[in-house]
Amino acid sequence: MSNQRTACAATTISLQEAAAPDSVCFGCGQASEHGLRIKSYPDADGIHLVATVTPDERYCGWPGLVYGGYLAMLADCHSNWTAMAAHYRAEGRVPGSLPKINCATAQLQLHYMKPTPMGVPLYLRARVEGPVRLRTRVICEIYAENKRTVMAESVFARINPSALARKAHAESA
C-alpha cells in the first residue's frame, strides 16, 4: 500500500475511548488492565476505520514473525468497531450515544497472505462491505511495511450484551 495513512489527524480520541471507555474486551477495551487497548479512528476518506499497532515481542509466533492469533485478534476487534461505527452512522448518531450499539463476531475468516514481521508498526484498514444490517460484513486488511500481510473477512451481529451473557450462562448450566 503506497499511500498509507495514519489516523485522521483531526481525531484525537479513538472510537473505543469515545463510545466505550468502560469496555473490558481484551483486544480493544480501554478498561482492560492487561489488554491491548486497540484504538480505531475514522479515516479521512469517510469509508474506512484505521489503526496502527506495534506488536510487543510476547506476540511472536516464530523468530521475527508475529503470531497469527494476535493478528486475528487485531482484525476481529478493529472490524467489530468498523461495524458498530457503520450502525451509528446509518442511524445518524454519534458513536456512544444512547442507546449504545454493540456487535459481536458471528464469523471471522483470515487469509494470511505473507509473513508479518515483528518490530514494525502494523497498519489496519477496515470497511463495511455491503449494507449495514443486523449482520454486517466487514473487510479488514493488515499491512506491515506497506505490504498487505493479512486480509480478514468477517460478519458482525448486532446484539444486546446482557441478553447474550444470560443466554451463554443458561446454556452452560
List keywords for this structure.
173 residues, alpha+beta, two-stranded antiparallel ribbon, disordered N terminus
Quick summary:
Helix content is 23%, strand content 31%. It has 173 residues and is an alpha+beta fold.
| Average predicted local confidence, pLDDT | 93
Backbone structural class: alpha+beta
Largest beta sheet: what is the strand line-up? Answer: 1-2-6-7-8-5
Contiguous uncertain segments of 5+ residues: 1-10
Strand portion: 25-35%
Helix and strand sequence: HEEEEHEEEEH
- The gyration radius over C-alpha positions equals 16 Å
Shape: globular
Q: Count of helical segments?
A: 3
Number of strands: 8
Q: Care to describe what's here?
A:
With 173 residues, this protein is α+β, with helices and mostly antiparallel strands. It has helices at residues 15-19, 68-90, 161-172; strands at 41-42, 49-53, 60-62, 65-66, 102-112, 122-128, 135-144, 147-159. The strands form two sheets. A six-stranded antiparallel β-sheet has the order 1-2-6-7-8-5. Strands 3-4 form a two-stranded antiparallel sheet. The longest helix is centred in the middle third of the chain and has 23 residues, at 68-90.
Question: What topology does this entry show?
Answer:
Layout: H1 15-19, E1 41-42, E2 49-53, E3 60-62, E4 65-66, H2 68-90, E5 102-112, E6 122-128, E7 135-144, E8 147-159, H3 161-172
